[in-house]
Amino acid sequence: MRLVVLRFSALGDVTLLVPVLQHLATRHPDKRITLVSKPHLAPLFEPLAVDFFPVDLKGKHQGIRGLWRLAGQIHRAYRREGYHVFDQHAVLRTYLLGFFLSLRGKTVWRLQKDRSGRKALTTSPPKKLNFLPHVTQRYWHTFYRGGLVEADAPATWPVPVYPMAKTTAAWWAQHRGGLNLAFAPTAAHASKRWPRDYSVQLLRHWAREKEARVWLLGAPGEKAELQALLRESGAAGGVLAGRYSFDQEIALLKEMDALVAMDSFNMHLGALAAVPLLVIWGGTHPAAGFAPVSTGPQEHLAVPQEELACRPCSIYGRADCPRQDFACLQRVAPAQAWSALQRLIPSLGE
Asked: Under CATH, what is the fold of the domain 167-344?
């Protein structure tokens, strides 16, 4: 029997599916698991006993006809061994794909998102800050409703091992410093981006450490922005944005002394690496259920709720600020971040 899991995006949400599928594969070695997702996400699942079924949502699987074609391809691939379908995305595309598979006699178990809970969390103040179930728990509950696991999700999740490729290891041996900091200063939305001058100040602190290097992470299109940031700070190191596949980024993060990240995809990569992690929160909040899942040490910086009642203003982030000043980010000072880094790396400043 095969378990066909649907999840097309977003990067962070797909990353949070990794430990859940790893645990599921361990629990059910008699069942094969297939993840249906975008091809560039496949490296995240390399260490897992999970097959990958790539989708081309801008090509042959685009639109209603394309999803019908995709349903046919899935059914032909797995009908002989039998399969169950788990929609861990619950968006229009996967609803349609699930419907097309149900026409072939398949039951589809679908992620329950609790949209009303999310709306209440982001409503205008005064608000009551209720912590929603973590998304890994929601993924788990989908499999529970399909009869695969017990109701309660594990208290801790397994950490996959991402081996470093020979070419990556050779590069790292030549470039690593005595102290190595990974820094991911960008995010998809302005409400999750720390002010640029704050990033420069933090890197200047880091540059004063002996044999310290910083490695900047981000999307391939942010490479020029990150290079300019590195030059302005005067710190030694380099830009890794777009250089390596996701599995190799995780392998490199495992070698770092710490990672500083916003609420972003790189935060979740760092969690998979179990690297000491400092997260700077802005307009989003861990209460929404998207905090990093990590066995490594963590520090989280955010403006306290009693000082800024509008947080969170969004579940995923937004381009604007209801107050027009992004106070949630402006009030997290570089000195606070440096103090948090010293807690993660006690040798700093010695």
From this structure: Rossmann fold (3.40.50)
